[in-house]
Structures are given as structure tokens and as C-alpha cells.
Specification:
Strand 1 (14-18) and strand 2 (21-26) form a beta hairpin. This protein has a three-stranded antiparallel β-sheet. Helix 2 packs across helix 3 (70-82). It is α+β, with helices and mostly antiparallel strands. The protein contains three helices and three strands, in the order E-E-E-H-H-H.
Length: 87
Amino acid sequence: MDWNACPRVSDGIEINKVADGYIVYQPDRDRVHYLNQTAVLVLELCDGNTRAGELPGLIRAAYQLADPPTDEVSECLAKLLEEGLVH
């Protein structure tokens, strides 16, 4: 994980809000993804300006956690990258 990178949401995906997260459709791959609330927050923070290394602290603050969830954010971000939802 490059914690200095500033990931951003990939172009061309369709994001639809649902009660408990997002449903994201990738037309170029004809794939549908379901994101829970935490993955939604990580995706929304991928704005191209926020460094990946800042994400665990922002998630900690959003959920009022005692410690930043570094491993969990790393796994989530890696999956978003792998699936092509962010770059």
C-alpha cells in the first residue's frame, strides 16, 4: 500500500445509494459491487486530494474509535483498487 498516494474514484462507474451502503456498477466490466457503510466512507474519501495514509485517522474520527483501523482501511482500499473502483 502506497500511503502517500491520493486515490480517487474511477471514472465511468455508477454509484447508487441504498439504505445500508452503496451499490456500484461498472459498465465497462458489467460488474455490480455492494459496499457497506465503512467502504462507502473510504470510497468517498478517495477524492484525489486525500492521502491514503490519512484515511485510517479520518475513519477513526468518523466512528469515534480509540485507534485508527489501519489494517482494515488498508484491506478495504486494496480491494477497491483491485476491483477498479478507485485508482
